[in-house]
Amino acid sequence: MTPIESPADDETTLETATPSSVELVKLTSRRLRGGLQEAVVSDAPLFDDDDTVLLKFHGIYQQDDRDKRVKRGGPQEKVWSMMIRLTIPGGVLTPDQYLTLDALADRLGNGTLRVTTRQSIQFHGVLKGNLKPLLAEISASLLTTIAACGDVSRNVMASPAPIDDEAHRAVQTVARGVAEVLQPRTRAYYEIWLDGERVTDSRDEEPVYGDSYLPRKFKVGVALDTDNAVDLYTYDCGLVAITRDGKVLGYNLLVGGGLGMTHNKAHTFARLATTIAFVEPQHAVAIVRAVCELYRDEGNRSDRKHARLKYLVEQWGAERFLEALRQRVSFALHAPSPVPDPVQHDFIGIHPQGDGRFFAGVFVQSGRVADRDGETTRSAFREIVATVRPGVRLTPMQSVLFTDLTEADVQTLQRILAAHGVRGAGELSNAVRYSMACPAMPTCGLALAESERALPGVLEQLERELARLDVGTVPLTVRMTGCPNGCARPYNADIGLVGRRPGVYHLFVGGGLRGNRLADLFAADVKVDEIIPSLRPLLERFASDRNDDEGLGDFYQRVAGHLTPRHLLTGSEKPTAALFQAATLV
Ligand code: SRM
Ligand code: SF4
C-alpha cells in the first residue's frame, strides 16, 4: 500500500482492529451476568462501569438527575436513579398490563410513564433498591424489559392500527415473530431479577447472538404499503407488507437505516434504509434473522460510533449485501415490489376498525403520560382503561390508541378526556399534533440541550406564525432532540431541531410525512429564541408559493433541494437558510 492509500474502507482492517472495551465486557459477562447478581442486592448506591454496560441488555440505564448536579469546590455531586425501558412488540398492551404499569409509576418510579418513539414505555427515577420489585411486577404482568437496550435486536415495531384485515394483523404477527426469534435466550434475567434457579449448563445457549451479542443495537420495524406509521426508513432492518385487497403478497426488505451521528464527525451520518429485496410471507421472520446474523458476523466491533449496520451497507453497497444475504438463506430473494412510499399515519381521533368497533388515538405531548395543571392525561388514561377496558396500543409518534371501542365506549372516552382537559384531534394544531421530542434534560446523560421541556414553547410560536400565514392546516412534522443521536427522528421531519449546546440548535428542513427523505441543514447554531425568525423567510415563501397538497419539506425540496448536496448532515456543509432570502430562487 502506498502512503496515501487509506485503509479505512478495507474490511480486513476492521477484522484485525482491536475490539472495543464493550466487546470484552460482553464476552466475559457469562451471558449478561457479570457482577449484577451481587451488585443488585449490595448497599452500593451505584453499579460499576462494566455492570452498567450489562444492565442495558436488561432494559436498565443508570442516570443522574442533571437538574440536581451540584459542584461545591470538589467533584460534582450527583443524584442517581435508573431509567427502565420495556420491550413491547408492536406496542400492544392489555388493559391490565397498562393499569399495572400506571400503578408502578407512582409506587416505584417518578409518577410518569413515557411512551417512547419506538412503541414502548419507560419509567424514570427508579431507585436502585426498587429495581427488583419493579422488574418482578413487570414480569408478573407478562411483560419484560430484556433487550429493550444493549447490543441486541430492540423492541420490534409494527403499525399499531387495529384494523380488522389480514394485512394489519399480519404485520403485528410478524413483529411478534421477529421479537421471539431475536430475544436473548440467556437465563441471566430470571436469575438476577426474578430469583430464578442459577444455570450452569447448555440451557443457556444464545443461538442467534453467541458470546458477544451484536456489534451494536439492531432495530426492526414492520410497515404496510399503505401505512408507514413506524417510520421504516430509519431502521437497521425493515419489512413493508405488499398488500392487495387487505391480503399480504409478501414483504419488501429494507436494510441500513439509522439516524444517530456525532457533531463534527464526518464519518458518522444519518442514513435512510435501502430497499433490496422481496420475500414471500412465510420467510418474513427468517430474512430478518438472516440480516441480524450477517450484521453479527460482519459489523464493526472496534469503533462503536461506526458500528451500526448502516455503515456496513454503505461500505459494501446494496448488491454485495444482498449477495451475502443470499448465501445465508435457502429461499428466494426476489426483486423488490415497486410501491409508492406510504405516509406516516398518527391515528389521532376516532376511526372505525372494520369490525363494527372503533379505536381512538389520543395525542401525548412528547410521550410523557403525566398529570399537569389543566391537563391530567395520566389520570384520564387510567380512568379510561379502568372503565372501558379497551386494548391499548402505543404509537411510534409517542401517542396512545385505545382499541375495540363500541359507540357508547367512544362517548365515555370523550367525556373522560374532556373532564381531564386532554386535547382531542379538533383541539390540536398540526404543528403540535405531529411533533415529537426526546427526553433530553434532566435524565439523559448525553443531552447537550433541552428537548422535551423546550419544544412546547417553540411550538407555540410556530403555531402563531403558521396561523398568521394561513398555512396552519397543512400537516407538518416538527421533531426536537437534545443531541445529534436523533432519538425523536429529527432528520427526516419537515423541521428538525437538534441540540448543540444549552439553548442552541441546528435547524434541519426538508423531510416530511412519508419519512423517505433526509432533511438538509437549514441553519446552524440557532438560539432557541431565533428558531422562528430563522424559519420565517422559508415559511413566508411556503405560504405564498406552495402548490396544493404540498408539505413544507416537499416545498423546500422543490425550491431549494436541487441546489444542495443530498448528504448534508456531517457538520461541514453550508446551511441553506440563506437561499430563501435570495430573490433568485423560483
Ligand atoms: Fe435513543 C441513546 C432515549 C429512540 C438513537 N436514547 C439513548 C439514551 C438511552 C441515552 C444514553 O445512551 O445514555 C436515551 C435515554 C434518555 C432518557 O432519559 O430516557 C435515549 N431513544 C430514547 C427514547 C426514549 C426517545 C423518546 O423520546 O422516546 C427512544 C426509546 C425507543 C425505544 O423504546 O427503544 C429512543 N434512539 C431512538 C431513536 C429513534 C428510533 O429508533 O426510532 C434513535 C435514532 C435511530 C437510530 O437508532 O439511529 C435513537 N439513542 C440513539 C443513539 C444513537 C445511536 C447510533 O448508533 O448512532 C443513542 C446513543 C448510543 O446508543 O450510544 C441513543
Ligand atoms: Fe438523549 Fe440525545 Fe437521545 Fe435526546 S437525542 S434522548 S438528548 S441521546
From the structure above, extract its key features:
586 residues; alpha+beta; globular; binds siroheme; binds iron/sulfur cluster
Mean pLDDT: 92
Rg, nearest Å: 23 Å
Give the spatial strand order of the biggest sheet. Answer: 1-2-5-4-13
Number of strands: 22
What binds here, in terms of ligands, is: siroheme, iron/sulfur cluster
* Count of individual helical segments: 17
Task: Work out the helicity level.
Answer: 25-40%
Percentage of residues in strands? 15-25%
Main β-sheet description: 5 strands, antiparallel
**Structure class:** alpha+beta
Runs in which pLDDT lies below 50 for 5 or more consecutive residues are 1-15, 565-572
Envelope shape: globular
The end-to-end span amounts to 49 Å
Can you put this structure into words, describing what you see?
This protein has 586 residues and is an alpha+beta fold. 30% of the residues lie in helices and 18% in strands. The strands form five sheets. The chain has a five-stranded antiparallel β-sheet. A five-stranded antiparallel β-sheet has the order 3-16-17-12-11. Strands 6-7-8-9-10 form a five-stranded mixed β-sheet. α12 (377-388) packs antiparallel against α13. The protein starts with 10 loop residues before the first helix and ends in a 27-residue tail after the last helix. Residues 1-15 and 565-572 have low confidence and may be disordered. The site of siroheme has 30 residues, from β1 and β2.
